[in-house]
Amino acid sequence: MATADGTWAYRDRFGDEFGRTYFRRFGDGVVSSLGIGTYLGEPTDVVDDEYEESITTALENGCNVLDTAINYRHQRSERVVGRALAEADVEREEVLVATKGGFLPFDGERPADPGEYVREEYVEPGIVPREELVRGSHCIAPGFIENQLDRSLDNLDLGAIDLYYVHNPEAQLEERSRKAVYDRLEETFTRLEERVAAGDLRYYGVATWDAFRVHPEHANHLSLPEVASRARAAAKEAGNTATHLRAIQLPFNVHMADGFTVEAHEGAEGAESALWFAQKAGLNAFASASIGQGRLAEGLPESVAERLEGESSAGKAINFARSAPGVTSALVGASSREHVRENLDACRFDPMGAEAFDRVFE
């Protein structure tokens, strides 16, 4: 498990190589403001090898945030993260490992009959009650999430996970009311609080695509204040003195800045954006799609690019995401060693200050 001593030691080893605020607080430790994402890529051995090399390069050169999910590349991404972490010249206590559960994963490759696989692997054994399935592929019931947490521990070959996200709970809104989704989240949070007490989980969070960055009237909206309230209730139910809800994840980049611009959540002083609410509530925010899944490497709007430091469009896009108030770490895919080194080089520049960032939106 990542520790304060371990992550601060990692920061002491690499911090002088990067720009201002490259390392940022997470709990009682620190993490790099560049994180490695593992979503993209075909489920092949070749891509596995590329990921392993890239993740190892990142860990050994100043990036100590690894983000994955059990469904990414049919469980292959988790397994690669585990292998790379074991092989890299770093200590386990220096690295934040985050994964997610919610989408039913295949195992290594897409089966010939996905419906039959889901039925035999999850429904018939009772892991997922049929009525809990949405789209035939998504579930956030506590028993299923606990099952997935255990599988992730096995895939990663770890004794504990630092941050476990409930993955895209807004998918449940296709078939359930918001109240029903909040109720289910509270039940699942309670189970995760129990796993924290058991010692194989440090923190949990909610990873989203739409939920926290759309207006309240949007069909996929979930209230961050309500989610935080349900986490507090879950901690009390589990007998913990405080909630271990620690983080949110949402897309954030030049073209998807809604997490900063859309005032979708009711704070103490009125409506606030997800990033502002999270910051005030003590929640770390992790930015997914920081370079638009590669698209922003081809260019940024000139009015934004001219305000950012960096030697490439991808580097400037990373620094835009790192500059947003409340963002702890910007997640970027690790497609090759060269790209990892380029992304790390971008972080040798300082991010924008708060006033300069605000002026982008004037």
TrEMBL record:
Pfam families reported in the protein's UniProt record: Aldo_ket_red
Cited InterPro entries: AKR2_Oxidoreductase (IPR053135), NAD(P)_OxRdtase_dom_sf (IPR036812), NADP_OxRdtase_dom (IPR023210)
Source organism, top-level taxon: Archaea
Annotated ranges, domain NADP-dependent oxidoreductase: 34-213
Name this polypeptide is given: Aldo/keto reductase
Provenance organism: Halalkalicoccus tibetensis
